Amino acid sequence: MSRFNPASAGQSLDDAINAVKGDLTAAPAASQLDSWMRLLDGTGAGAQGAMLQEMTDLKKYIAQGDVANISHALNRLGLLTTKAATETGVDEEMSSKLRRLGEALQAASTTVAA
């Protein structure tokens, strides 16, 4: 598993925020999840390991077309992402992007079933 690299994560977070506004049940969403998952350190401190597990579950739910669990996983991932924004060592710009992504994920969780 790769180590989290904040320098390369900034653009990826911007891409993630934009992707979350799209159709998260579509096939490209699963490939986008693979890209995001490579940025996380599953054994790292803080929320990264839990985020990686939630993304793994989300990918499975997307493949199964399980809308209820997609919604739940997006909400949980949004909460974890928002939590990651407040962790020690996260600079102000990264924290802002993580908060925006967390909010977008939580908003998407309420619209994915619609």
Automatic annotation (TrEMBL):
Organism: Hymenobacter humi
Name of the protein: Uncharacterized protein
Superkingdom as given in the UniProt entry: Bacteria
